[in-house]
């Protein structure tokens, strides 16, 4: 299937590992040029080099703290200058500060930090990208989480902040539709990433169980009985970034069937 991405210019935040890296790699495999950022200059440039080597496409890596408006603006400006224009934004963000905890255990400063890095980063990336996105065609995809729609214990910060992203993206989709720009979010389930490895280890320590038992605690209510791989999420992101032209303002669940809601 030709996704119509050949020659498109894509910006991917938090793209040096996990979903971000998988998305950048898959977009490049489809013929797109990519610019990604990560907290570490070395890691971002290494990720870009791996993409160039694997695909032969232009791939650029920059350091950027998504909690900093200056870093975001610098990243997008450099990407636009190198690529010439921006067609696709994959607005990937990090996770709330610290380990998962009950809803009332997050302190005000942690909420402020999470708000900057998870919600405001998406708003700021969009503001920076839009002037470089031509009229008539554009795609924006923001990975969030299923807990934004179906909250669960110990996920209050992630659920609240990413629910805000989903609502904001829906409003944005309405406002930019007449420019041919499509905006969607991805409701991710449990993904096999470094962050999930930390969560499994924390579960082992707190519950005093083996790794297998800790994993089972997390996948017990997943019908597919396994974690998702980052590239499985990236494939849906690539589809939403493609020439498909009648999907916008949607929150698409990619969670192995874990979400129980039907609307």
From TrEMBL:
SUPFAM superfamilies: NAD(P)-binding Rossmann-fold domains (SSF51735). Pfam families: adh_short_C2. It comes from the Bacteria. Belongs to the short-chain dehydrogenases/reductases (SDR) family. This is 3-oxoacyl-[acyl-carrier protein] reductase. It comes from Pseudorhodoferax soli. The lineage of its organism: Bacteria, Pseudomonadati, Pseudomonadota, Betaproteobacteria, Burkholderiales.
């Amino acid at each position: 299937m030709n996704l119509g991405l050949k020659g498109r210019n894509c910006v991917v935040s938090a793209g040096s590992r996990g979903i971000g890296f998988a998305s950048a790699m898959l977009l490049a495999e489809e013929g797109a040029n990519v610019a990604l950022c990560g907290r570490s200059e070395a890691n971002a440039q290494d990720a870009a080099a791996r993409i160039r080597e694997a695909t032969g496409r232009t791939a650029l890596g920059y350091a950027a703290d998504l909690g900093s408006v200056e870093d975001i603006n610098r990243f997008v400006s450099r990407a636009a200058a190198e690529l010439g224009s921006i067609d696709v934004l994959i607005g990937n963000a990090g996770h709330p500060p610290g380990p998962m905890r009950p809803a009332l255990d997050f302190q005000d400063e942690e909420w402020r930090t999470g708000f900057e890095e998870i919600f405001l980063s998406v708003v700021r990336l969009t503001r920076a990208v839009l002037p470089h996105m031509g009229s008539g065609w554009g795609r924006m995809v923001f990975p969030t989480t299923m807990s934004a729609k179906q909250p669960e214990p110990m996920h209050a910060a992630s659920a609240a902040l990413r629910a805000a992203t989903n609502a904001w993206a829906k409003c944005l989709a309405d406002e930019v539709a007449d420019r041919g720009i499509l905006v969607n979010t991805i409701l991710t389930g449990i993904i096999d990433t470094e962050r999930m490895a930390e969560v499994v280890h924390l579960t082992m320590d707190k519950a005093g169980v083996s790794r297998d038992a800790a994993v089972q605690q997390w996948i017990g209510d997943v019908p597919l009985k396994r974690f998702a791989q980052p590239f499985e999420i990236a494939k849906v992101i690539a589809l939403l970034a493609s020439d498909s032209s009648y999907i916008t303002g949607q929150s698409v669940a990619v969670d192995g069937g874990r979400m129980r809601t039907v609307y």
